[in-house]
Amino acid sequence: MQKIDYICPRMGYKKLILKSGRERSLVNRHPWVFSGAVKVLPEAENGEIIEIHTNHKELLGYGFFSPNSQITCRVFEFCDQEIELNEAYWIAKLQNAFGLRKNLFNPNETNCYRLLHAEGDFFPGIIVDVYNEVAVVQVLIRGVEQIAAVVYKGLNQLGFKYIYLKTKQTTQLLEQVEQGSRWVAESCPMPIEVLEHGVKFHVNVETGQKTGFFIDQRENRKLVAEWSKDKTVLNTFSYSGGFSVYALEAGASLVHSVDSSRDAIALCDANIEKAGMQHKHQSFTEDCFDFLKAAGSDFYDIIILDPPAFAKNARSVANAARGYQNLNFLGFHKIKKGGLLFTYSCSQHIDKDLFRKIVFSAAADAKRNVRILKQLSQPEDHPINIYHPEGEYLKGLMLLVD
Ligand code: SAH
Questions:
Q1: Is residue 307 located within the same domain as residue 169?
Q2: Which of 60, 105, 211, 341 could be stapled to 110 by a disulfide with Cβ–Cβ 3.0 to 4.6 Å?
Q3: Ligand 1 contacts CB of residue 344 (under 6 A)
Q4: Is the pTM of the predicted complex or chain greater than 0.90?
Q5: Which of 171, 197, 201, 239 to mutate to test the pocket of ligand 1 (most atoms within 8 A of CB)?
Q6: H/E element holding 38?
Q7: By residue range, what is the domain housing residue 23?
């Protein structure tokens, strides 16, 4: 275990002062201080913990300073009295987060989940995903890097002896973390076998996308399974075949998985083989748009559209909207009469109303009768801080298409 070199600076952090009239969102506990709202910057280093004050010198809370980002400070604690940010403070945050997850899952059925969800757990700049005995930590800002040793200690106390630090940036957030991905404590041989609703998957946290698996789709995969018996299923943007394995185990007659990444398809094939379902499955290393264009329009009973985030930032929303529109149009065009389309967006910058409008417009262009059977979102281990609507990044629709 790495040496713990975190030194609590006790009280007296440097102060950021907000412009008069710009404290509203902070008073309402939105955890981001935008650069335009700052009257006086603290003389602090990138990553330092700072105090946030109103123009009237009232303390609003504490956050991590990011002078080079548009989000100048990310608040992790709202309070009007000084508090001690010692080791116990950070470890308590982890324990609270773990307490919620312990109540959510039966470990005999599901042992991969998100343990810490940044702002959703009042801990901006960090994500921790659990794969059985392994905790994968993604540090997204310098501020968290400064206290990483305490986080590792806290995870160790929760029983994780295998901790992997993943530095590959998968969000549009933030500054680059300096060191490379590595095992922080003991290393665990790859791949790891995990369970999700009793369904087995192999996950490689060292080489996989994100932290290894798209655990945010857990409940949506279960929903697809409930409708898959005797159905032909097209799983586009399949990655390691999450939706495909669920559909096959639930009795789908045939599943096609499509992904443009050769590595993703290799993972998908391995998971299908592990489930012993090769005879009902075919994978395609292809662009999903091209695949859909070439597909017949009377073949698939179920189509899943789960693309990567098309909108990486606010500027790319218009282009992204066109991408979702084209994709959904193809989905509507190719699905059988009476079929089910499961369509998702994980772009933080496209909210659920806009997504619904895009899907509406694609349905109208395809001239299909479409009904919403369910509106879908991220699961409970990806909690949404009510003051931080940006945290509601995953949205989906289950559609009946006549
Ligand atoms: N549904 C998956 C997660 C999808 S992640 C799951 O449940 O695990 C998005 C995937 O889309 C990635 O694997 C990426 O390789 C793939 N991808 C991105 N652009 C693509 C394109 N144009 N055509 C096919 N696959 C694409």
A1: no
A2: 105
A3: no
A4: yes
A5: 239
A6: strand 38-40
A7: 15-78
